[in-house]
Amino acid sequence: MSEAHQKGCHEWRIMLHGFIDGELDSVHAAQFEDHLATCENCRAEMERVAAVRKIINQDGVRWKPPEALRSQVLSMLSFEQTAAISSLPLQRQPPFWRCAFDFVRHWSFVPSLAVLATSGFLFINAPSQTLILQDEIMASHVRSMMADHLTDVLTSDQHTVKPWFNGKIDFSPPVSDLTKDGFPLVGGRVDYIGGRAVAALVYRRHGHVINLFIWPAASGAQTTTEHDGYNMVQWSDGGLMFWAISDVASGDLAEFESVFRSAARL
Questions:
Q1: Are 105 and 218 in a shared domain?
Q2: Which residues contact 241 (CB under 8 A, 6 or more apart)?
Q3: Helices (H) and strands (E) in the chain, counts
């Protein structure tokens, strides 16, 4: 895609989220639809954003505390308020109207306390950002194979794949052909993970696809996990975050990480 075309698409992509959210007026919405009909890159970007929105909005991502929790909080607070009033000496108990006033005044704290209890419940039960990120990575991995969009640049030549990313993302990913180690390079593409454009390198292992997602991020601990039947390994190096995912055996994916890191340091 030419530099002029990239600049033009940048202007259209500013409108993309407004189009998806239905916030554009009819004139601009029609103009954007006309542009989508002729621009493959913007269509692909819209599909990626829509897929992320679908993951975020799916069941299990929004959490509502059970009604029983609110009832328990209100019951305990009501019991404590009644006990506090009843514990006053008989001769010093305030008139009924004052008891009612104090009850209402203290009761005004109930919403805040209920919110506090609910927040604690959500904090304990909400999935971590890591799990949400793993869901996005798995969705991108599966989608890349189902939508016939495994690569944007199809070649095993690392000297072609690496410069292909220039101007498409804001960093330079390391690219190595690992054919001699049993992991031939297939190509690369630009994907959308965690709210940003990332590099995706594609490798194979005995017919199985390995997607390696790369983006700039602070260093973190190396982790290996199994997520919905896919093995995943994450590591960081040189200011970049790496996530590899595949249905190959966990031992093969660990070997891939080792040989890729060694090749990237050469």
A1: no
A2: 214, 215, 216, 217, 220, 234
A3: 10, 7
CB 163 within 8 A of CB 157: no
pTM of the model: 0.54
d(CA 185, CA 153): 11
CA distance 169 to 196: 9
- Is 248 a member of any domain? yes
pLDDT value of residue 123: 44
Between strands 185-193 and 240-246, the pairing is: unpaired
Instruction: Judge whether 45 lies within some domain.
Output: yes
Distances in whole angstroms, Cα of residue 188 to Cα of each of 156, 160, 261: 9, 10, 18
List average pLDDT for each run of 10 residues in the chain, which is 266 residues long. 48 74 77 85 82 64 56 63 54 49 47 50 55 89 82 94 95 96 96 93 95 89 85 94 96 96 86
Q: Rounded distance, CA 70 to CA 77, Å?
A: 11
Same domain for 28 and 133? Answer: no
Q: What is the pLDDT of residue 231?
A: 96
Handedness of CA 232, 236, 242, 248 (dihedral sign): negative
